[in-house]
């Protein structure tokens, strides 16, 4: 699919689906991508990865980027994070640099959970005398109260990702970027962390851009699902997920949406490598 779909507006139900969480009316975008292109392969023939991506993320909105492996999802996230620059086009993040969570927790193993969070506070310029209390507050937010002194090797995979989330929150971001952060976890732990993430997102008023290749995960979490085409990645289609949180993906409404998105994703996967 080569054309760019027109965005489907979120309904009032989706926008207010969890204690008022959702896009903020009457404000500018938290993230704006305008005709973004990205190519790799210099010197030599340029390999297009992303082509003509235009996308707005509203303040307080939860958006999942979905697509086949190699379609440019992580590349797009890195561009928004400021880790790379687009070949063409522009990216605006008016609220300041986003926080980024990777698939691996990337915690420093020689530091405790609390010290990992404090490091982000230190880099942000929080005074030393305030860091301990703030780190404990952030660990409480992700339901790890009392874990400040625990070493990384003492934590389960899910707990490590919670510490990574607390460390991201320590950066006081308005936009949180997440690159398949739960992909390595077992299904039960992943489902638990989905609910924790929704709770934190609602409570902190964040805009979230979440990369996944899992349709069920996207529909479970997002207010809007954006499908990227096979390389070069373009916005192929968007869906508003018009179901209040908490959600059950086996419900008729979500099961039907999962099937529709899966069918479209399969079409994109079948095109992968032909373009």
TrEMBL record:
Q: Does the keyword Cytoplasm apply?
A: no
Q: Give the signal peptide range.
A: none
Annotated InterPro entries: AAA+_ATPase, ABC_transporter-like_ATP-bd, ABC_transporter-like_CS, ABC_transporter_ATP-bind, P-loop_NTPase
The UniProt GO MF terms for this protein read: ATP binding; ATP hydrolysis activity
Where does the ABC transporter domain lie? Answer: 31-255
Q: Name one Pfam family in it.
A: ABC_tran
Q: PANTHER family in the record, alphabetically?
A: ALIPHATIC SULFONATES IMPORT ATP-BINDING PROTEIN SSUB (PTHR42788:SF13), TAURINE IMPORT ATP-BINDING PROTEIN-RELATED (PTHR42788)
* Name this protein carries in UniProt: ABC transporter domain-containing protein
Give the taxonomic lineage as stored in the record: Bacteria, Bacillati, Actinomycetota, Actinomycetes, Kitasatosporales
């Amino acid at each position: 699919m080569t054309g760019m779909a027109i965005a489907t507006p979120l309904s009032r139900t989706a926008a207010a689906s969890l204690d008022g969480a959702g896009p903020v009316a009457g404000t500018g975008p938290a993230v704006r991508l305008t005709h973004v292109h990205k190519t790799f392969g210099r010197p030599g023939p340029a390999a297009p990865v992303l082509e003509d991506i235009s996308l707005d993320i509203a303040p307080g909105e939860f958006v999942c980027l979905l697509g086949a492996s190699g379609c440019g999802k992580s590349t797009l996230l890195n561009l928004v994070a400021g880790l790379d620059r687009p070949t063409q086009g522009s990216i605006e993040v008016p609220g300041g640099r986003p926080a980024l969570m990777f698939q691996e927790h990337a915690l420093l193993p020689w530091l405790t959970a609390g010290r990992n969070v404090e490091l982000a506070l230190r880099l942000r310029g929080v005074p030393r005398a305030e860091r301990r209390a703030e780190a404990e507050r952030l660990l409480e937010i992700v339901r790890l109260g009392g874990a400040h002194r625990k070493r990384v090797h003492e934590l389960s995979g899910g707990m490590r990702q919670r510490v990574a989330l607390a460390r991201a929150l320590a950066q006081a971001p308005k936009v949180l970027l997440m690159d398949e952060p739960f992909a390595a976890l077992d299904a039960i732990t992943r489902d638990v962390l989905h609910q924790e993430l929704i709770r934190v997102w609602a409570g902190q008023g964040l805009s979230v851009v979440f990369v996944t290749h899992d349709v069920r995960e996207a529909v479970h979490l997002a207010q809007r699902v954006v499908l990227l085409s096979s390389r070069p990645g373009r916005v192929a289609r968007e869906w508003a997920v018009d179901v209040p949180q908490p959600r059950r993906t086996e419900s008729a409404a979500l099961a039907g949406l999962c099937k529709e998105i899966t069918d479209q994703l399969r079409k994109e996967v079948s095109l992968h490598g032909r373009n």
